[in-house]
Structure formats: C-alpha cells, structure tokens
Design brief:
The structure is a homodimer of 188-residue chains. Chain A is mainly alpha-helical. Chain A has two domains: 3-48, Arc Repressor Mutant, subunit A (Orthogonal Bundle), CATH 1.10.10.60; 59-181, Tetracycline Repressor, domain 2 (Orthogonal Bundle), CATH 1.10.357. Helices cover 64% and strands 0% of the residues of chain A. Chain A contains ten helices and no strands. In chain A, helix 4 runs parallel beside helix 8 and helix 9 runs antiparallel to helix 10 (170-181). The longest helix of chain A is centred in the last third of the chain and has 21 residues, at 143-163. Chain A is elongated and about 55 Å long. Chain A binds chain B through residues 109-112, 138, 140-141, 145-146, 148-149, 152-153, 156-157, 160, 175-176, 179-182, and chain B through 109-110, 112, 138, 140-141, 145-146, 148-149, 152-153, 156-157, 160, 175-176, 179-182. The structure holds a DNA duplex (30 and 30 nucleotides).
DNA sequence: TTAATAATAAACACATTGTTCGGTATAATT
DNA sequence: AATTATACCGAACAATGTGTTTATTATTAA
C-alpha cells in the first residue's frame, strides 16, 4: 500500500476516534473528520464510501487485535494462556489497557452500529466456547436464548463498568459477571 | 384542545408508527411523515420541534397506558391485581396484546432513543419494587449493578421474544426471565 | 355571525452528502 | 535523474433534508 494512503487512512481513523470522544456519532460530519484529519473531501470519499463504512473498517482493525486467535480467545484457550485468565477476564483486561479504543466507542452515544458489530464478535467468542458454559444453563430454556443472554450481559457489564469510571479491577468485574449469570469460574 | 389539532396530532402519530414498521428510524424523513399523514409541512413543525421530539411525545402517550399506576405496576401491585400476575408478566401481556405499539418500536432498527426511554420506565418500575428482589441479589455485588442488570435482562428478554416472532406465551417468557436472572417467582 | 386560530402551499436559507474535474505533489520504477 | 503512475487537493456541483417564514384559506368555538 502506498505510503500516502496509509498516512491519510490513519489520519482519518485518528481524527474519527478523537471526535468520538467529544461528539455523538450522529453529530459527527464528514466535514468534521476531514478538517481534523487535514484531508481533502475527495480523498475521504476515495477511502471510505460513507461515515458508516469508516466505522465498519475501524472496527475491523480494532477487533483484529482484541478478538484474534493469537490472543488465546478460542477453544484451545486454556492451553495457550499462561495466566489463570478466563476468556472474559482477558477481554476486559484488553479494554482496560486501552491500547484499543473500545472503551471510548462503547460509551459513545448514537452508536448502535458499533454495538452491533461488537456484539457479533462477543457472540462468536461465546459460541466458540459454548461447551464451557452450556452445562451451566438453567434447565428448560432454549440454548440460543441462553447464549444471547450471556452475550448481552457481558456487554452490559462492561458498559456499566466503563460508565462508572472503570473503578473496579478487571478481576472484580469478571467476578460480577460470573455471579449475575450464575456460572462458576472455569479456571482456578 | 381544538378538534383540528387532535386530528393532525393523531394523523401524524399514526403515520409515524406505520412508517416505523417498514423503515428504520434514521431513514424516516419529515417529508415521509407529512405525506402519509396528509399534513402540511408547517403544520408538522407547529406540533413537533423535530422528529426526535415526535418520538418522545409518542412514547409519553404509549407509556402512560402501559406503565401507569392504575395498571397495578407499583408497590401495592399485589393488592390491586386480580390475577396471579407478577409485574413483569403483566407488562409482557400488555406488549403481546399489542394495543400499544411497543413491540413494533422495540424491533425497529436505529432506535436507540426509544430504547433509552423504555429503559427509564422499566428501571423506575424495578426501583419501585426493588424490595421484592433485593434479597435475591447475589452477595458482594453492588445494588445499582444488580438493578441495572435486571432492567437490561428484562428488556433483552422481550427483544429476543419479539425478534423470534413472539411464539412463546407471556408466562413462558416470564419464566425464562426469572430463571436467567436467578430469582424465584414472587406470586404463586 | 364573528373573531380566533389552525392548516395550507410555496418559497426560503441552511447544512450535509457524495461526485466530478483539472491541477499539483508524492511515490514507485527504470 | 527522469519518467510514469497515482494519491491528494480544492472548488464547484447536484441532490436531499431540515426548519422557518409568509400570505391565504378553512375550520372551530363563542
């Protein structure tokens, strides 16, 4: 990829993330982005079809780091992870570290789109590991309902944590999560 | 209120609700609404500041029916409700009956705003009745976190139900809800 | 019947989107 | 270093949507 392309691409991403921490998604205009990124209008549109696609591509880049296989977040996780982490704790630690901007995006208003993408990833993770908690499912409720519940509760737990200033440690939040969904810790 | 005002107001509400079942909230324009409602542009804006305010006022009217005190949804509920209903079951039955349009609004895309308003109401309800489930709270997790979780889970349960075609009976859904949040039925 | 006021269409300024185009700057290639 | 390719630029553009204003007409309440 041309060096100029990389420059403008990251400039746009950075501008977009910075704007997201001050403005609601809906209120951010393309004019805002290109002004902060110092990029021409035509250039913006040669990179991204619309603002929504910009978000989509940003998510792809962010999620690649956090949800990647190398980060031991799949079935074989127990064998590759050194610490006594669970999958959830691992993810929460990632967010706390803030090397990504997921916390920023999760607390941003008018961001259904981001939440949708995020939920897809969390759900994939849970599905890939469903053997670990399917036996924790209360009797007589549908499997799909249970997995959906785990996904939603995990996300809402993180959102609550972020909106309250991320005071608690990742370990504590993971404990909260396990308690309210009523499953035992998997790795001790 | 002038008869003409009532006419246009309900015409706009009806048009809006009909549009919401075919289009996403973001994609509905004021032009769409006034065309379907057969109302002049200036008339629309003399009734509602913006499209968002239209939604807000619609919610006020809808919620008045569903979350009202007369519908025995507060503290004294046990004494006024004839059936062996719980608060949650009562609400779910209301939605199933579809005398309101809450199901439509809950399944509509790009409708963070509605969800926000809805959540406020559900949370008020839960807060008013918190004595009934605060003793069900798992130990060592914050009260506010627990109540927030109940609220979110209840809403997500309803959404799952609606998105899956409302196949299950209100009683079954209420059972599901109680099971995943891990609280016992209150009224037998 | 009259006085008040709600509804109307049409025109308006304004903001935002997404496209096009000719010229300029920068990168990759030889 | 010279050449070629292409990414960037600004400016202008049409298209769409928002919210306001105005002068006129129709309906209501009294």
């Amino acid at each position: 990829m041309d060096r100029r392309q990389k420059r403008t691409r990251t400039a746009i991403f950075n501008a977009f993330i910075n704007l997201l921490s001050t403005k609601n998604y809906n209120n951010i205009t393309v004019a805002d982005v290109i002004e902060l990124a110092n990029v021409g209008r035509a250039t913006f549109y040669s990179h991204f079809e619309t603002k929504d696609y910009l978000l989509k591509e940003l998510c792809n880049e962010l999620f690649e780091h956090v949800f990647s296989v190398e980060n031991c977040l799949v079935d074989a996780y127990i064998f590759t992870c050194k610490e006594k982490d669970t999958m959830f704790l691992h993810l929460i630690k990632h967010i706390k570290k803030n090397d990504n901007n997921i916390a920023k995006l999760l607390s941003c208003k008018n961001n259904e789109l981001f939440l949708e993408y995020f939920k897809v990833e969390v759900k994939k993770l849970i599905l890939a590991n469903k053997n670990n908690f399917s036996n924790e499912k209360p009797k007589f409720i549908p499997e799909e309902f249970w997995l959906n519940h785990l996904t939603n509760t995990f996300i809402e737990t993180i959102k609550w944590w972020i909106d309250n200033g991320m005071i608690e440690s990742p370990e504590t939040i993971t404990e909260y999560f396990y308690k309210i969904v009523g499953i035992k810790k998997q790795v001790q």
